[in-house]
Amino acid sequence: MPGLVPGIQPSERGGASGTMDPGDKHRDDHGVQASLTGHRDSMAAFGNILLGGIFHAAVLFLVAAGLQLVFGVQKIVNLACGSFYALGAYFGITFVTISLRAGLPAWTLLPLLIIAGALMAVVGPPIERILRTVYDRDESFQLLLTFAMVLMFQDVFRFLWGANPQSLDNVQLVYGKIAAGDFIVPVYNLLVIAAAIGAAAAIGLFLQRTNYGRLLRATAENRSMAEALGVDVRSIYTVVFTLGTLLGTVGGALVVPTAAASLDMAVEVVIEAFAVVVIGGLGSMAGALAGSLLVGLIRAISLVVYPEFEILAIYLIVIGVLLLRPSGLFGKPAA
Known about the structure:
- By secondary structure, the chain is mostly helical.
- It has 13 helices and 2 strands.
- The chain has a two-stranded antiparallel ribbon with strand order 1-2.
- The chain is globular.
- 36% of the residues are buried.
């Protein structure tokens, strides 16, 4: 037939003359839709990673803040902070389980965990009295004593709760989830993040705006001068150590709805807490906040991208900070 180009079927004439074939248009629309879907999936994945990292940072901040507070005032590097964290986790599971069996509604989970963590702060004062024996001795004695406490607590956990991990079986889902496509975040995680932010604000106000907070800072700056002015330093040390213990036990209690309590968790959190301290600067509360965020986000990204790189990534940052700024991001350079 005239007008036909050899090799082109009649149904393709429109394509040859520049008119888009309906099938081609459908394929193009499908490609655009797939591209948009892929973009949304990537954004959702990034959001999930970001919030997962912030949640871990929120819990880690509570432990690191307790460590920073104790060191800032008492000048003791407390390895036992990890044991306080594990104690809060184990007792939180027991306390919540008993409370729910007694008939309390599931939505009381968060206040129950906070109460459980607060109750376990009772171990702070007796341990602080033991630590008084090494206040004026070399740091190596402090490290050995607090590490011995880590081992002792581990045996206590094994005796009371056994060697198997303990968990709460997703009780936190009673608070529901916020979902937008593939972006899903449990409301419990947001509540814990809010609680950590509130704790950070409360600690800052306590240290900066209250008379007792000023006494703490004065004692941290010059213990001898504070004693000469009539400050009861022993009482302050007991309060500070108990507050540091409280932060650790509450942090451990808050994490158990999302992670099982195990015998290894004390050592694991100590490793991360000291990474936070090195990055942020020893004795700096702002450093604890910044370091916790950095470690939490690095950990979350590593677990998604390459899980075996998780700990290595954190310590590469630690090494970089030690090389470039040995006092930490917010720490004061040594005189």
